[in-house]
Amino acid sequence: MGQVTGIVTRVEAGRAHVECGVSNHPACGTCEAGRGCGWQRKNQPRRLEIDAQQGPRTLAPGDQLEVHIDEARLLRAACRLYLPPLAGLLAGPALLRVVGWEQGALPLLGALLGLVAGGFLAWRWTRAGVPMRWQWLGVDGATLSDQS
User: Fold this and answer.
1) Most buried residue, 1, 39, 52, 139, by most Cβ within 10 Å?
2) Count of other CB atoms within 10 angstroms of residue 76
3) In whole numbers, what is the pLDDT of the chain averaged over residues?
């Protein structure tokens, strides 16, 4: 399970904005080495947005918390994001070839239309995002209570 610690910077409309630093990311060794995912950028904090209320507690600015993301769900979300545009890019010209319309710029137009259709499908499919759990951290970093 991926996890990162951060501090709530603001809460708006039931959503909490959390800033996470590179130095406090214990789950991934590549981030510490500077070769990590695209989320790590030089001299910029990582930001994410989560639901401010889970269970009886509500997050407030200044709260320190630990966010957990299930890696299997994250992988499924990445597949739902990247595979439909790729499939559309490949299927558009293939369908035109089956129909017999493969002259001129039509295959390129078919690829473009397939890419756009796949991108729209991926956007609709991934709008809900990846569910995350968070828990409050105490002053010394000890866990106070688990929220799901």
Assistant:
1) 52
2) 13
3) 78
The structural domains of the chain, with segments of one domain joined by +, span 2-70+131-147, 73-125
CATH class in words for 2-70+131-147: mainly beta
pLDDT tens for residues 113-124?
Answer: 999 999 999 999
Confidence (pLDDT) at 119: 96
Beta-carbon neighbour count of residue 4 at 10 Å? 23
Alpha helices by DSSP H, the chain: 29-33, 71-99, 106-125
The answer to whether 60 and 30 have CB atoms below 8 angstroms apart is no
DSSP string, 74-98: HHHHHHHHHHHHHHHHHHHHHHHHH
φ, ψ dihedrals at 37, nearest 5°: -70, 175
